[in-house]
């Protein structure tokens, strides 16, 4: 499948970036890591640069400012494809996505185009989440699955492994959504494009250090965009139009 690039977007993750990089390097020694830092005020970019000096498997993409999770991943995808990587992985910096589970995602990718580390399939679970957060995540995935008519159980999951060819076929240049909505957008695009998507159960652990980037605005954006996509898709089908 080619060399693996694990993309880790960061904004104020100075406490977390070194531990998560070390865990990735131990779990998948051949993988490379791209830290995509949005000019973190806490010096995350500097820490990442120091890691890159010590380890040639670690790369750093310095971005001008905080533009959102989706923009950071898209920049990382483009960088990875331009530099010849065959597999591109999404992973959070805070440890909620366990690097020790990455080998299972990569094994599953041998028979798929996109593998999603899922909390809501049998065997998947969450640790240390408040009920309110679980309700938002479960509800968001169910809502998206029904509105967009896709079989994926965890539409908002952010732990994913893509083949390069999958990303090239998703029309990334048209993706403008962020946060939860970004993950929903890519999953829906993959299904519409006919790619084979597999969900692998993972254990999601709430961060121990730093602050979550989740906000009401992110949830609201996702709800409105998904409703718009779902309604538009149904109208296109009724009118016999081809999906954009």
UniProtKB/TrEMBL annotation:
Residues 6-168 form the Glycosyltransferase 2-like domain. This is Polyprenol monophosphomannose synthase. Belongs to the glycosyltransferase 2 family. GO terms for cellular component: membrane. Keywords: Glycosyltransferase, Transferase. InterPro entries: DPM1-like, Glyco_trans_2-like, Nucleotide-diphossugar_trans. GO terms for biological process: glycolipid biosynthetic process. It comes from Streptomyces botrytidirepellens. GO terms for molecular function: dolichyl-phosphate beta-D-mannosyltransferase activity. It comes from the Bacteria.
């Amino acid at each position: 499948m080619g060399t693996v690039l694990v993309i880790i977007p960061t904004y104020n993750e100075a406490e977390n970036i070194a531990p998560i990089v070390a865990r990735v390097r131990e779990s998948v020694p051949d993988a490379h890591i791209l830290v995509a830092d949005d000019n973190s005020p806490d010096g995350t970019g500097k820490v990442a640069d120091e890691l890159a000096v010590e380890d040639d498997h670690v790369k750093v993409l310095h971005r001008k400012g905080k533009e959102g999770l989706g923009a950071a991943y898209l920049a990382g995808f483009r960088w990875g494809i331009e530099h010849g990587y065959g597999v591109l992985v999404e992973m959070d910096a805070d440890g909620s996505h366990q690097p020790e589970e990455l080998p299972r995602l990569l094994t599953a990718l041998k028979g798929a185009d996109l593998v999603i580390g899922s909390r809501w399939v049998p065997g998947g679970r969450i640790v240390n989440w408040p009920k309110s957060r679980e309700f938002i995540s479960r509800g968001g995935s169910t809502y998206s699955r029904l509105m967009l008519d896709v079989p994926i159980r965890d539409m908002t999951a952010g732990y994913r492994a893509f083949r390069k060819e999958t990303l090239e076929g998703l029309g990334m240049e048209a993706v403008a959504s962020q946060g939860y909505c970004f993950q929903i957008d890519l999953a829906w695009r993959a299904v519409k494009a006919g790619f084979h998507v597999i969900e692998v159960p993972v254990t999601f652990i709430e961060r121990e250090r730093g602050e979550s980037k989740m906000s009401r605005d992110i949830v609201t954006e996702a709800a409105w965009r998904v409703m718009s996509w779902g309604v538009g898709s149904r109208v296109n089908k009724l009118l016999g139009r081809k999906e954009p």
